[in-house]
Write a structure and sequence with these properties.
heterodimer; A: about 375 residues; eight-stranded parallel beta sheet; B: about 375 residues; alpha/beta; about 15% strand; globular; fructose-bisphosphate aldolase activity (chain B)
């Protein structure tokens, strides 16, 4: 302990910090378009579309062909490996289209969950092998940030001490390796909303998990100013009979973060975790209106909550592409406002926007 | 881990949180007047005054009987056990005099260091035995906050993992017990300035120590909103040949804090650790002007740096009471301004105010 062996030079730190700040610049958040092939299967089957590489390409094209309106509300897009090397109908790589809009390109680098023996169905996440080489290549190919998702769940005996420790540790290893390769790591310790626990219980667990994450990041000498956090909002379990307002969710969420996330972290980009599009926006808005002091940007990194309406409008038909893109731009703009506490609410009921996007035990 | 058993009720939390905020409101800081008998001996010896209970009482009486306007700059006073039960010449208890001025009364709770075998002369701190009962009694006797000083040093193989771990754990146990008894714990993990290490090394060590402290506080279910932190500023070792400006000290200090101290902590009250009165004020001012995010109050908890000139002026003579009080008041006001980033160095300082107050391997 007594000697420090600097992990990063001053230039490396500056580069990482600049990237992170660009992603979470005021009013901007992240489009999580990194659904794996398996996850895309579920999405596409919901709209009756076959899960082929071409359909996945066409669908991402719908999102990425959004016009300049997204420049002010999207700071980063997370890609899946396959998508990073795909092109639009004119042969322009998706990466270039996104970069040309001044949006930072990110890449999912984890390789999914694996069981932790001796636990009650808990997991850790794999993907560390050869990660440095993969990151170096992704950096050359245009990626400036990465994402790694760990999963914890609340039940009678979980999350266990082992699950918390192991997932925190693997997140810290991933983060350290990313930074060595000029890539900003988004650290995602998701606590699933499955279960009937109440808001307080989720808050308690979230605080314990995040405390462990930040201790691990410190132990692994990770440069916090060059990271982002992608946590769950603090919410009740999906089967909890008590209903809470966005303000209650906001207060519980911001309190948990204030107790665990050092101010050096430039931004917190929430996952939507099965909330409907409208819920995810209203909650983010309430979070940004919460009266407690909040030293980090509080914004979105939404997958389903940015894409549900677009997916529904598209339904696999080229003719619907324009309308589908509009749906996406609309949600992006709404969330850009919510990230500044300026969203007044849609006033609409029903439709894809309000439909719960909850899927039991979600794995991307 | 799965179940939480709330350590504190909502009312208890509210009480603790309000006490903590009162102490650091509006640029106020703390007078650390909790020198043990042995330490007072060192102080009095420098001004050639005999270390008797009466002399200790007289000096404290002079400080505590200053004009009530002191409550604009001093939010709390830490007392030593003996002093808590002493009275002024009219028979009025010191603690009541302070409370009537609206100043919160605190008590030193630790009972000094004990060696950690197998380390390079490192220590842990004693005082946990019967601590709950002692806290309960102090609370009845008018005390609202406690202080516990852990000591870490930078040297060959120091601070070791064991020293960091053990001291962080003891601090967390102490904090937990305090809160159970309605006392706000001031958490003091001092990295002493002995040595020739540079500023960067102190920053590195301070970050590791504080990360461990906040993990321990989380593990022990301590309510952060009802605590205060009393850390060292990040400075070079006293024998370091390189000199640094207050701005460099400030940047290193605030960087370390914002990487480790959650925003939920209401206030950080620096120890002066042997800095001259003027340096302690200039550094605090620079800290408050530092452009990094600072979601906590950044104030002072000074012993020597508030009392050196006063002690000098007193010289053990009752006739010097007015001069003593003026000297004390002047430093208190200066530090209050520094805590708001508004201190203007006047240029004239007494010999005592610029004299280094460094004593090797300081123990109270």
């Amino acid at each position: 302990m007594p000697h420090s062996y600097p992990a990063l030079s001053a230039e490396q730190k500056k580069e990482l910090s600049d990237i992170a700040l660009r992603i979470v610049a005021p009013g901007k958040g992240i489009l999580a378009a990194d659904e794996s092939v398996g996850s895309m299967a579920k999405r596409l089957s919901q709209i009756g579309v076959e899960n082929t590489e071409e359909n996945r390409r066409l669908y991402r094209q719908v999102l990425f062909s959004a016009d300049d309106r997204v420049k002010k509300c999207i700071g980063g897009v997370i890609f899946f490996h396959e998508t990073l090397y795909q092109k639009d109908d004119n042969g322009v790589p998706f990466v270039r289209t996104i970069q040309d809009k001044g949006i930072v390109v990110g890449i999912k680098v984890d390789k999914g969950v694996v069981p932790l023996a001796g636990t009650d169905g808990e997991t850790t996440t794999q993907g560390l092998d050869g990660l440095s080489e993969r990151c170096a290549q992704y950096k050359k190919d245009g990626a400036d940030f990465a994402k790694w998702r760990c999963v914890l769940k609340i039940s009678e005996r979980t999350p266990s001490a082992l699950a918390i420790l192991e997932n925190a540790n693997v997140l810290a290893r991933y983060a350290s390796i990313c930074q060595q390769n000029g890539i900003v790591p988004i650290v995602e310790p998701e606590i699933l909303p499955d279960g009937d626990h109440d808001l307080k219980r989720c808050q308690y667990v979230t605080e314990k998990v995040l405390a462990a994450v930040y201790k691990a990041l410190s132990d692994h000498h990770v440069y916090l100013e060059g990271t982002l956090l992608k946590p769950n909002m603090v919410t009740p379990g999906h089967a909890c009979p008590i209903k809470y307002t966005p303000e209650e969710i906001a207060m519980a969420t911001v309190t948990a973060l204030r107790r665990t996330v050092p101010p050096a972290v430039p931004g917190v980009t929430f996952l939507s975790g099965g909330q409907s599009e409208e819920e995810a926006s209203l909650n983010l808005n309430a979070i940004n209106r919460c009266p407690l002091p909040r030293p980090w940007a509080l914004t979105f990194s939404y997958g389903r909550a940015l894409q549900a309406s677009a997916l529904n409008a598209w339904r696999g038909q080229r003719d619907n592409a324009g309308a589908a893109t509009e749906e996406f731009i609309k949600r992006a703009e709404v969330n850009g406002l919510a990230a500044q506490g300026q969203y007044e609410g849609s006033g609409e009921d029903g439709g894809a926007a309000a439909q719960s996007l909850y899927i039991a035990n979600h794995a991307y | 881990m799965a179940h939480r058993f709330p350590a504190l009720t909502a009312e208890q939390k509210k009480e603790l949180s309000e006490i903590a905020q009162r102490i650091v409101a509006n640029g106020k800081g703390i007078l650390a007047a909790d020198e043990s008998v042995g330490t007072m001996g060192n102080r009095l010896q420098r001004i050639k005054v005999e270390n008797t209970e009466e002399n200790r009482r007289q000096f404290r009486e002079i400080l505590f009987s200053v004009d009530s306007s002191i409550n604009q700059s001093i939010g709390g006073v830490i007392l030593f056990h003996e002093t808590l039960y002493q009275k002024d010449s009219q028979g009025k208890l010191f603690r009541n005099i302070l409370k009537e001025k609206g100043i919160v009364v605190g008590i030193k709770l630790d009972q000094g260091g004990a060696p950690l075998a197998g380390t390079n002369k490192e220590t842990s701190i004693q005082g946990l035995d019967g601590l709950s009962e002692r806290c309960a009694q102090y609370k009845k006797d008018g005390v609202d906050f406690g202080k516990w000083r852990a000591v870490l040093r930078i040297a060959d193989q120091c601070p070791s993992s064991l020293a960091i771990q053990e001291n962080a754990n003891a601090l967390a146990r102490y904090a937990s017990i305090c809160q159970q008894n309605g006392l706000v714990p001031i958490v003091e993990p001092e990295v002493i300035p002995d040595g020739d290490h540079d500023l960067e090394h102190c920053q590195y060590v301070t970050e590791k120590v504080l990360a461990a402290v906040y993990k321990a506080l989380s593990d022990h279910h301590v309510y952060l909103e009802g605590t205060l932190l009393k850390p060292n500023m990040v400075t070079a070792g006293h024998a370091c040949t390189k000199k640094y400006t207050p701005e460099q000290v400030a940047m290193a200090t605030v960087t370390a804090l914002h990487r480790t101290v959650p925003a939920a902590v209401p206030g950080i009250c620096f120890l002066s650790g042997g800095m001259s009165e003027e340096d302690a004020t200039l550094n605090l001012n620079a800290i408050n002007l530092c452009p990094l995010p600072k979601p906590w109050k950044l104030s002072f908890s000074y012993g020597r740096a508030l009392q050196a000139s006063a002690l000098d002026a007193w010289g053990g003579k009752a006739a010097n009471k007015k001069a003593t009080q003026e000297a004390f008041m002047k430093r208190a006001l200066a530090n209050c301004q520094a805590a708001k980033g508004q201190y203007v160095h006047t240029g004239s300082s007494s010999a005592a105010s610029t004299q280094s107050l460094f004593t090797a391997c300081y123990t109270y």
